[in-house]
Structures
1.
Amino acid sequence: MVERLSEKAKEQDKDADEIRGEYFQKDDHGKFVVGKDSKLQLLEGKKLEDVNKAFDELTDSEVIIEFTEYGKKLKALYDALVNYEYELSGSDAENYELVLTQLEKNFEGENK
């Protein structure tokens, strides 16, 4: 499962690099040009608003990961999270809620 998540993260990184390559200057070695303000330098004729829009579209796009081969393990994870008795806080609580919500969508739909 971690492998699948890692693959999706790499895909998104690749897509982000493609966007950067489309909008920002590179030197002769293929490295992005950084200005005195420590920011990447836009290619001539490109607008920052367009870059931001492209990144917004990328980050807003839905990512689908097929986990059918992990069905039993995910069901066990779901059951463990539903029955988790300890209190969580901060990012642990947020991540717990996020994962549990997604698993509930899957497993509660099966029971209907």
Note: The chain has a mean pLDDT of 86.
2.
Amino acid sequence: MGSGRPRSCRRLFNSLVLSIHRLISSPLIFVFLGFNVRRRLYDDDDDDDAISAPIGRAKKASTVIRSEWPSDDIPLGHEAFAIPKGYNAPQQVHITQGDYDGKAVIISWVTPEEPGSSKVQYGKLGHQYDLSAEGTWSNYTFCKYNSGYIHHCLLDGLEGSLGFYDEMAYPFSRCRHYRIARSSDLGQTFNSLSTLEHYIQSGGQTVLFVGDLSYADAYRDNDIGIRWDSWGRFVERNTAYQPWIWSAGNHEIDYMPDVVEVILLYAALADFLMLAIGIQQWSICFAINAAGHLTYSPQWIWLRQELSKVNREQTPWLFVVMHVPMYSSNDVHFMEGESMRVAFESWFVQYKVDLIFAGHVHAYERSYRISNIHNDVSTRACFPVPDKSAPVYITVGDGGNQEGLAGKFRDPQPNYSAFREASYGHSIIEIKNRTHAIYRWVRNDDGQAICGGED
């Protein structure tokens, strides 16, 4: 199923595949188990006050003059989309979480000419691969496009350091110290390639991808499927070697007015768009669908119940991921997440969520710890205020897609906005232990982790 460099300390995340009824603003909640210690989060995204400035001390709008390649998609014949050599060679290989207990992964790949085998062999590192699992495959048609044969294989009962292979071995091990990357709105431009290559160099162990994957919806008819396939090969350089946890965004909706067809989860890579629920020694992950955030909707009831179960004596780290940001000072998509904020912000404060990640806006921005849960128009108390129980809101919609950067921020910079910059990049949250973590945003231009303070 391809080849690549072995990597250590892979995080085997958990999953439950959920149906998705609507894709925009889908939140994903992560809880990292440990002691009930109110954490210290070191934030590295403000280059002027490196080392020691606490989050919330001084807001900053970056003056960086960015460089970027054109936002056009990379031509299909480029080596970034190289088709593996050999008849019916597997392609678009990717790994995601597979169960509640952190002892399973799902391996997915595509064979272009015929189904071939769905068998995966695996075993402990340093030993023979004497275990095997049998997967399933499916395919589909859309307009005149015929997909390849899409395989999924569940490997369960994994313990310790394990590897698996179809034609080549992919080793994994489990560890307590780990790095999680956050990215979204990637697409398949040269800027996208720069983001992906910078992430691979970072030593991250898994990726939370928060929607807007291939941007194939910009194409028509057969080219939609072709551009999903090219994107699958594009990200394979990393998805074949470590888990990516997928959520979905508005660009996963394909509308074909001439054939009166709406595809909510484009079938070519529907397996990429899996939301997860899982429990492990170090992490628990709830996946929710943001379509029904009105009071007493099924999701509203579910989220209230699940948050109430979180035991902060065991879970000091609580992250939420959604596609559309609840707080953003960029003119593009301004206040699109307001209804979500009204519905859920008080819960995020009540349960002391640490970080909320979003995409959608093609720029980077970090807030202070603020809330607007006492919004009252009659008393004019309708502005965000400092709140130590509130999360930090981080927008990293700067993956590099064909729409380019959202360079126009609102002026003056709102008091809740700590740092903002319209540049391509990715972010890393490094869980050091049960009480400490380091957060970094890495700009593509210079590959530098922009430094900041501590909270």
Note: The mean pLDDT is 76.
